[in-house]
Amino acid sequence: MTAAALVGVAMLYFAGTAGAQKAAAPEGKIKAADFALTDIEGKPVKLSDYKGKVVILDFWATWCPPCVKEIPHFNELSKKYASKGLVVLGVSVDQGGLPAVKKFMAKTPVNYRIALGEDKTYGVYQNYLPQQERGGIPFTFIVDKEGFIREHYVGYRDIEVFEAALKGLL
């Protein structure tokens, strides 16, 4: 290959990557997969609906004590940080589906959107977790404004853990 050809290839490479810096993943982070689910009101919900927002994406179930214990945290975070661009989205993995979630929500206040999970979305997001952390709930992701997974948690966490994760993202 001639020197001119090498320079041309280098110029094409750098021209193609120069604009990509802005959208590049934060080191070690991956893009969260979009999904198409239905919320408990029967309306479609996609992760991409929240581009430009920071999303706490929580996979949970009504029968799971640690999941239920986190709900007040998510209620508070949603209320406190919504004006700064935070969205909390719960994804129910209840086998009882909509009836189980509606019955639960009639007794437990939840001030953020709840979608009904399905196997494909559950599987995709489980695979984002390290092998040794798969299978448990709740599992929660912090997704930044560009759609990259910034943090993940399996099991109950205190509200301070989530607040610390949100610093610098909102």
Describe this entry's structure for a reader.
There is one protein chain. This protein has helices spanning 3-18, 65-81, 97-107, 119-126, 159-166, and strands at 36-39, 44-46, 54-60, 86-92, 113-116, 139-143, 149-154. Helices cover 35% and strands 21% of the residues. It starts with a helix and ends with a helix. It has a seven-stranded mixed beta sheet with strand order 2-1-5-4-3-6-7, covered by helices on one side. The chain has five helices and seven strands, in the order αβββαβαβαββα. The longest helix is centred in the middle third of the chain and has 17 residues, at 65-81. A hairpin with a 4-residue loop joins strand 1 (36-39) and strand 2. The protein has a single domain, classed as Glutaredoxin, CATH 3.40.30.10. The protein is an alpha/beta fold.
Produce a short descriptive summary.
The protein has 170 residues and is α/β, with parallel strands linked by helices. It has five helices and seven strands. The termini are far apart.
- Major sheet summary line: 7 strands, mixed
Radius of gyration: 19 Å
Tell me the number of structural domains: 1
Low-confidence stretches: 1-24
Quick check: average pLDDT?
Answer: 88
> So how many helices?
5
Q: Which architecture name does CATH use? A: 3-Layer(aba) Sandwich
Helix content: 25-40%
Shape: globular
SSE-based structural type: alpha/beta
Instruction: Give the strand line-up of the largest sheet.
Output: 2-1-5-4-3-6-7
